Automatic annotation (TrEMBL):
Name of the protein: Glycoside hydrolase
Lineage of the species this protein comes from: Bacteria, Pseudomonadati, Bacteroidota, Cytophagia, Cytophagales
Annotated organism of origin: Echinicola soli
Alphabetized UniProt keyword annotations: Hydrolase
Domain of life: Bacteria
BP terms from Gene Ontology: carbohydrate metabolic process
């Protein structure tokens, strides 16, 4: 589906905008961010969320930032969001408040946990690498870069200068995530410094998971997706997960190499990506089911549609043509993945749907936020980068609405491991391990999907909200740290909410750089 494009160039802007041009050319500039504040929203108007979240729980585990200090940390670090649908707004602040709980001080710098409670299979400092890509995508919006800078370094260099012992315990899309983080911060120096680490990691997966035919295999539990319909804890299947991750990582390393000026290395990794893309489309696309599916170790499709079949769009891997678009028909089909409380991890019509029992981390159909956030990121890419008519803005909004509604437990905001698709009941909700489970994204989906702020290379940015025109008459995303500047995006259908004009508006450091009459794409060059 295509949307109208409004192109705004930097050149016609007035003198105050030169600050943005300078910041884009120089990269991240913390002093500029500190000098600017939100253009429309007032930070103090959202403090009540942090106060409520802190009151509603017993703080039995405290890491680097306590509940008492949570608002001060949020005030310094997070974008601000206001919407007429208050549950969206509440969960936005809850997810920042809960993410903060997982920032941990270690002898080698900050780290980020997945579980607050200690796990027997974790690495030093109770670290688990499974959701590292999610941690980077979500945390890239924090104003202070030191947290994510150190979190990544702890994983790759925190073991006496070497990677953590269990870095490769789970499939990874870290190179892709770090490149997308660079698009937000503009910190080229940090990214280039990480290039050798990312190459070394890529080669580890080639040496340990690549078959002779060029495809990658993985055990489903090492994808963080145990007890799936298609696989098993000891089965070396060819899965859409790791193959998509390796494609995304290869594309990212090629782009990082070009930033360095190393065209030879860039071409090498572009070729790796091109080969994986061809292999995925030729071997993992089931033409009968019109879906990307797992291929068994012994050969042949597993013959089940699973949410992992949407992951190729997370990295814009599939060609923009039929039959690939047809896969997305399944997200609006109750026989497919559409359930009362969100998107299931396997198609509801399959005879083995939720047959593995309950509450031992089954990925045979129940809803996992890990998978939901991957599918929703892929869907936003589809709506922004592809020409199709299978799904539209209203479908994206409906699924985001279900995602929001699912993040409550006994009437309070909650994020856990996984939930029943029909009742919304959190299946490990009464276990301490599940509380504040840091295994997914949400705020990144609000920022890049629903509000539609999509940073690009060379300081380019697009705004393409996926909010249907008949849903919200107004919303505002403010205090976005972008390459040393503050971006504000607001929609005011009548002009009476913010008194700054009708329509969609984009501001940088308080100066308008783009506007549109309707909720449509704005490109700022």
């Amino acid at each position: 589906m295509q949307y109208p494009k409004i192109l705004i160039a930097f050149a016609p802007l007035q003198i105050p905008f030169i600050g943005l041009l300078t910041a884009v050319l120089l990269g991240s500039c913390a002093t500029t961010v500190e000098a600017q504040g939100p253009a429309i929203l007032k930070k103090e108007n959202f403090k009540h969320y942090a106060d409520y979240f802190s009151r509603m729980e017993d703080e039995n585990i405290t890491q680097a930032i306590s509940n008492e200090d949570s608002w001060a940390w949020m005030e310094d670090n997070i974008p601000l969001f206001e919407a007429p649908q208050k549950n969206f707004e509440e969960i936005f602040y809850f997810r920042w408040w809960s993410l903060r709980k997982h920032i941990k001080e270690t002898p080698v710098g900050y780290a980020m946990t997945e579980f607050l409670v200690e796990r027997s299979y974790s690495d030093k400092y109770n670290l688990i690498s499974c959701a590292l890509g999610h941690h980077i995508y979500e945390s890239r919006w924090l104003h202070d870069p030191k947290y994510l800078d150190q979190i990544v370094h702890t994983w790759y260099r925190g073991n006496d200068g070497e990677p953590m012992e269990k870095l490769h315990s789970f499939s990874s899309w870290t190179a892709d995530a770090l490149y997308h983080r660079y698009l937000v911060t503009g910190d080229e120096e940090y990214l280039l410094d990480m290039l050798p680490d990312l190459q070394e990691e890529y080669q580890w997966w080639v040496d340990n998971r690549q078959r002779e035919d060029g495809l990658f295999w993985q055990i489903d539990v090492k994808d963080g997706m145990e007890e799936s319909i298609s696989g098993g804890r000891h089965v070396k299947n060819v899965r859409p997960t790791i193959n998509s991750y390796m494609y995304g990582n290869a594309k990212a390393i090629a782009k990082i190499a070009r930033l360095k000026g190393d065209d030879v290395l860039a071409k090498e990794y572009d070729q790796k990506a091109a080969e994986i893309k061809e292999l995925v489309q030729e071997n993992l696309w089931n033409q009968e089911d019109l879906f990307f599916e797992t291929v068994k170790e012994e050969g042949g499709f597993a013959n089940v549609r699973e949410a992992i079949g949407f992951i190729p769009w997370y990295f814009n891997l599939p060609d923009d043509k039929n039959p690939y678009h047809a896969a997305w028909d399944q997200v609006t089909d109750e026989g497919g993945f559409l359930a009362p409380f969100g998107l299931t991890t396997a198609e509801c019509r399959h005879p083995d749907f939720r047959t593995h029992g309950c509450c031992n981390c089954e990925w045979d159909g129940a809803i996992w936020p890990f998978a939901t956030s991957q599918t929703m990121t892929g869907m936003a890419n589809l709506l922004n980068n592809y020409h199709q008519d299978m799904v539209g803005k209203s479908d994206y909004f409906t699924l985001m609405e279900k995602y929001v509604e699912s993040q409550y437990y006994r009437g309070r905001p909650y994020i856990g491991e996984y939930l029943d698709e029909k009742t919304g009941f959190w299946l490990k909700g009464d276990q301490e391990r599940s509380r504040y489970y840091n295994h997914s994204t949400f705020n990144d989906l609000i920022i890049t999907g629903l509000v539609g702020f999509r940073p690009g290379p060379n300081g380019q940015m697009e705004v393409n909200p996926l909010v249907p025109a008949d849903k919200w008459d107004w919303f505002c995303l403010d205090n976005i740290a972008y390459q040393g500047n503050i971006v504000t995006i607001f929609w005011d259908k009548t002009g009476e909410k913010y008194n700054k004009g009708k329509g969609l508006h984009v501001l940088v450091n308080g100066e308008e750089v783009g506007n549109a009459e309707d909720l449509e794409r704005i490109v700022v060059e």
